[in-house]
Amino acid sequence: MTKSKDDFLEKNKKIELLDSTATLLFPETCSLNFKDLNTLEVTFSKERYPVLGINIQCFDNPKLNSETKIKRYLIDDEEINFRLERKGDVFCLNYEVAVENEKLVIYKLLSILKPRNFRLLRFAITWPDSKQAKKVIEPILAKLPKIIEKVKFNSQRTKYDELASLDYNLSNARLVSNDFWNVIKLLLPLKWRVNISKNDEYAQIIMDLKGNFSFLVEKFFVNTTLKSKNNEINNDKLVENLIKEITKEVNITNAKLKKSDENNFLFYFIASEIDVNDSTKVNKSKIWYRLKVLEDKIVIISFVFELISDIELENELYLEKLNQIIGAAEILV
């Protein structure tokens, strides 16, 4: 009796990677373990060895615009014996190499989502180059082409494709100089919008077209009369005491203080607080303080970015850009 397609599917485990960007089917006897959002480990026996490592990455690259460039991107070494084929908008590369006393099999699937988005799905498995290991690996290697063949890429743009484009745009943004209150100069992406408050005390910088992501910049001055009366109080101690005072009623984690010269400091941390409208929800913000110690005062510029996205990667992309901007900012006084 011929088995139906549905019967076959029932005997497989279905895995969706990155918001259904890619869908994979594995034999039901396999053990699956997600190492992180992008990485999956698959084992085919009770011994849980060898391990098939699977990794997926979404990226945006307008320069990868020809079949020749795509092939060059996929091929690690022209000297190896590889097989490369294309089916529609998916390239498939596979090869086997010997590394010292081990062997390695690699499969790479590159899905093109026009005009400039790509999904790279990589499979890798290694095993000792021995007769005993050969008996274990051969049944697994026989299954791999069937697993690869049944991979399905989403034909629509997913959230992680959008984040890949965000990553590219942030990394390649044209920067323009912005002078705030003649106190600090920031190099900001041209498309970010700067709104200064009516009382000129703070600025809101809007980072996306929809206005969902923004951060606040505010300036402060703290008198340091105490320093002139007691020369034993150095800049480091002044800043440390000030930080303790600023954060004494704030729940903070991942705090770090950096010093670039005798009187220039950067302090940052994650602040957490219970949502005022929902006691089960915790709101988190990344806060930076740029501090400069002068003869009679400390100049403080604060930056606050609320981590509003439910997708950690989205928050991280903006944080990475802000870390660069704030770290490179020039205090003008």
Summarize the structure in words.
With 333 residues, the chain is α+β, with helices and mostly antiparallel strands. The chain folds into two domains: 5-158, Protein Transport Mog1p, Chain A (3-Layer(aba) Sandwich); 173-331, 3-Layer(aba) Sandwich (Protein Transport Mog1p, Chain A). The chain is 24% helix and 45% strand. The protein has seven helices and 20 strands. It has helices at 5-10, 67-74, 131-149, 159-171, 225-229, 235-247, 312-328, and strands at 12-17, 22-27, 31-34, 39-43, 51-60, 82-87, 90-99, 102-113, 117-128, 152-153, 175-180, 184-189, 193-196, 202-206, 214-223, 251-261, 264-274, 282-293, 297-306, 330-331. Strands 3-4-5-9-8-7-6 form a seven-stranded antiparallel sheet. A seven-stranded antiparallel sheet has the order 13-14-15-19-18-17-16, with helices on both faces. Helix 4 runs parallel beside helix 7. Mean pLDDT is 91; it is low at 3-10.
Give the N-to-C terminal Cα separation. Answer: 84 Å
Category by helix and strand content: alpha+beta
Oligomer designation: single chain
Radius of gyration over C-alpha positions, nearest whole angstrom: 27 Å
- Weakly predicted, low-confidence segments: 3-10
Largest sheet strand order:
3-4-5-9-8-7-6
The CATH topology name of the largest domain reads Protein Transport Mog1p, Chain A
- Tell me the fraction of residues in β-strands, as a range: over 45%
CATH first level of the largest domain: which class?
Answer: Alpha Beta
Q: What can be said about the biggest beta sheet?
A: 7 strands, antiparallel
- How many structural domains are formed by the residues? 2
